[in-house]
Design goal:
It contains 14 helices and six strands. By secondary structure, the chain is α+β, with helices and mostly antiparallel strands. Strands 1, 2, 3, 4, 5 and 6 form a six-stranded antiparallel β-sheet that branches.
């Protein structure tokens, strides 16, 4: 059996402000309360409200001041995503190619830095609440280890958190400047993949008729709402198949496909391969991976 990820390479901690410091891994800080001033890579940053901070081992972090800060901290090594990953590979010249081939994350939330993004994302209430719940689920899996799939579930939840945060990152990057309302639609979809997301439902939720809703969305995303939902669901399924051993029924519950047989049919129609064959293919292609170790 292939060793997919290193279970002890992720930790959850509650921070009172003293853990804003570099580590050898990726760090995700979710600020729950309080305020702080950090010096992040030479730039002073004020933290308050619903904030997420994504840092990597090369960031220079100094806590200047904090007042009653409480934060959830996820600390994870690249090897937690997959045993083939490490810092040398992620920073290697061919990581882009390896990422596309094997489905690895691009880790841009933790690695990219430019004038309007230095690793800090401001969340709205819905995003904050969802991510807070997912971190709580990770904490439960890590502390209680309810069954043999606790590591897989933690990894899947981490993928979900990164997927949600990437939408906030894209908003910072200006990808939705043409119509910010479309970002609201995408966020709602990302946060509710397990729910009914019919066009009728979306129209009622956003108090907009179906035609106007569809036109505004397609003008920005160049796809229909239904196509976007299907793509997001397929992407989530593929990540869970490729990097976890979760049963198809458990995967389906996360994306609104509650019948594993139906999920298999939809997956086969869209990907041209059954879920089980896809999982085995991704594992076999990835391990062993001589190119990765020579990167």
């Amino acid at each position: 059996m292939f060793r997919e990820g290193v279970p002890n390479s992720i930790q959850h901690k509650k921070s009172d402000g003293r853990l804003f410091e570099p580590s050898e891994n990726f760090n995700l800080f979710l600020i729950n309360s309080g305020t702080a001033v950090l010096e992040l890579n030479g730039k002073e940053c004020f933290l308050g409200g619903r904030i997420v901070i994504c840092t990597n081992k090369f960031d220079e972090i100094k806590l200047i001041h904090q007042s009653k800060v409480i934060a959830d901290v996820l600390n994870f090594a690249p090897e937690f995503i997959n045993v083939n990953l490490n810092w040398n590979i992620i920073r290697g010249y061919n990581y882009g190619e390896l990422r596309k081939r094997h489905g690895y994350p691009d880790f841009k939330l933790f690695l990219k830095r430019f004038p309007i993004y230095n690793g800090i994302l401001l969340l709205d209430e819905n995003g904050y609440d969802t991510i807070s719940k997912q971190i709580s689920q990770i904490e439960y899996q890590l502390s209680e280890k309810p069954d043999g799939k606790w590591s897989c579930r933690s990894r899947g939840l981490l993928f979900q958190i990164m997927d949600i945060l990437e939408l906030y990152y894209e908003k910072y990057a200006g990808n939705y400047s043409q119509d910010s309302f479309v970002w609201d639609i995408c966020q709602y979809i990302n946060l509710n993949l397990a729910s009914s997301l019919s066009l009728e439902h979306m129209s009622r939720y956003f108090l907009l008729n179906r035609t106007t809703l569809s036109k505004r969305f397609k003008a920005v995303k160049d796809s229909t709402i239904s196509e976007y939902i299907k793509t997001k669901r397929m992407d989530r399924i593929k990540h869970l198949l490729a990097f976890t051993e979760l049963h198809l029924s458990e995967i389906g519950e996360q994306v609104g496909y509650y019948d594993p047989t139906y999920l298999s049919k939809v997956f086969l129609k869209n990907e041209g391969i059954t879920p089980l064959k896809y999982r085995n293919k991704m594992k076999n292609d990835r391990f062993p991976n001589p190119e990765a170790y020579n990167a």
